[in-house]
Each structure stands twice: as C-alpha cells, then as structure tokens.
Amino acid sequence: MIYPEGNVVRYASVTRINHWITAICFVLLTLSGLAMFHPIFFFLSSLFGGGEWTRAVHPWIGIVLVVSYAGLVVQFWRENFWNQDDTAWVRKFNLILENEEEGVPEVGRFNAGQKFVFWAMALLIPVLLFTGIVIWEVYFGAFTPLVVQRVAVLIHSLAAIAAILVWIIHVYAGIWVRGSLRAMMRGDVTPGWAWRHHRKWLRGLAATKSTGPEPRREGAP
After folding, report:
1. pLDDT digit string (tens) for 197-208?
2. Which residues does the annotation mark as catalytic?
3. What pLDDT digit, counting tens, does each position of 53-78 carry?
4. Separation CA 180–CA 188 (nearest Å)
5. pLDDT band of 218, cuts 50, 70, 90
6. CA pair distance 125, 123, nearest whole angstrom
7. Which of 54, 72, 56, 62 has the alpha carbon at shortest distance from 18?
8. What is the DSSP annotation of the chain?
9. How far apart are the C-alpha atoms of 34 and 25, rounded to whole Å?
10. Pick from 176, 173, 130, 174: which is nearest to 153 by CA?
11. pTM as predicted
12. Which domains does the chain carry?
C-alpha cells in the first residue's frame, strides 16, 4: 500500500475554526455558569464584569455554542455512527490504556471514545438549550410558571455537570494521545500517527491517493 507523501490532513481549516469557537464558548459558559451556580464560585463573575453582566452574557454565549456545535454535527454525523469496529475497539480498551495499540482493532477517522464525546454533547447541548430558554428570565420568564423554572434549573445544572465531565474526558484524551492537539492546531498528522491510531482511515486515504481529510471520491481530480 502506498501512503500519501508527507503529512496527511486530518481537519480542514473551517473545521478547526469551528471547533475552537465551540471550545471557547464552552469554557466561557462553564466559568459564567459556575459563577451563578454557587456563591463559592461567584468570584468568577469578575471575568465578565460582575454578576449582572454574567447573567446577561451567559445565555447569548450559549446560543453561539449551539450554532457552532451544529456546524460540527453537520460535518461529522455520518462518520460518528457506531459500528462493529467500535465495539471491537472498546473490548480492547485495556490495551489502549497500556499504550499497546498494536493489538487494538483498526478504526476509521474517529474511534469509539471520540464518538461517545460527539454524541454525548449532541444530546446534552440541546437539553441545555431548551432548559436555558425556560429559565431565561428577561425574555421568557413571564411565560413559564415558577415550578417549571425550578425543574428546568435542576435539569440544566445536571446536564451542565455531565457536559463538563465529558469535556474533561475530551481534553484529557487530546493531551494524552500525543499528536492529537497538533491535528486540531495545525490540521495535519504524520502517516505514522494515523497508522497507529486510525489505521482504517489511513488505508482509505492511501487507496484513493488522497492527502486527507477524506478519501478521494471517484471521478474527483
């Protein structure tokens, strides 16, 4: 099998921009959300100009996050469907933790862990959106009973905690798997990295003589 010369493109520029907008929004939402969640975190509101500004800006950042993550969903939902490769990969997860990936089944562009993060956020972000709208006092407070708002606050808080935990897993994995941050910063990876972590994806690129991020379609130049 002949591999592409030089590095292969893993993420296009538009994808990386989309990802970092999402990431920045999520961090800002976490900080502003924690500032409103408990008095012990209220000092974080100073990052946004005080308590009132924190309450005002938090939902708007959330709207930007929803739109931005929707862009990622549009780009990657097809590649994140679960398949037999993912099941086999999960069964060998102990080898991944031991850094012995030669015994791990080949996977495509995204492995089971990445797919879990993708779909977990795809589920949690709409929950955060709809519960956030219910408790958005300025615009919707007059239309929702107090008991509904209280339930929405509880669900919103639990979903936020779950999203933060998923985000921590995502960041940890990105740092732990050497070369992953480079892929999202610069967009490319070495053929060796792709062979080790996403061998089936690399095989697809090589079979169509593509330099990435996707195999070349039949008839394409």
Report:
1. 999 999 999 888
2. 170
3. 999 999 999 999 999 999 999 999 99
4. 9
5. low
6. 6
7. 72
8. -PPPSS-EE-S-HHHHHHHHHHHHHHHHHHHHHHHHH-GGGGGGGGGGTSHHHHHHHHHHHHHHHHHHHHHHHHHHTGGG---HHHHHHHHTHHHHHTT-GGGSPP--SS-HHHHHHHHHHHHHHHHHHHHHHHT-HHHHGGGS-HHHHHHHHHHHHHHHHHHHHHHHHHHHHHHHSTTHHHHHHHSEE-HHHHHHH-HHHHHHHHHTT--SSSPPPTT--
9. 14
10. 130
11. 0.90
12. 9-91+107-180 (1.20.950.20)
Q: Can you read off the two tokens belonging to residue 159?
A: 């979903």
What are the tokens at 152? 């929405």
- The whole-angstrom separation of Cα 35 and Cα 69 is 23
Q: Which two tokens stand for residue 51?
A: 């308590």
- The sign of the torsion formed by the CA atoms of 118, 179, 214, 199 equals negative
* Token pair for 124: 């949690």
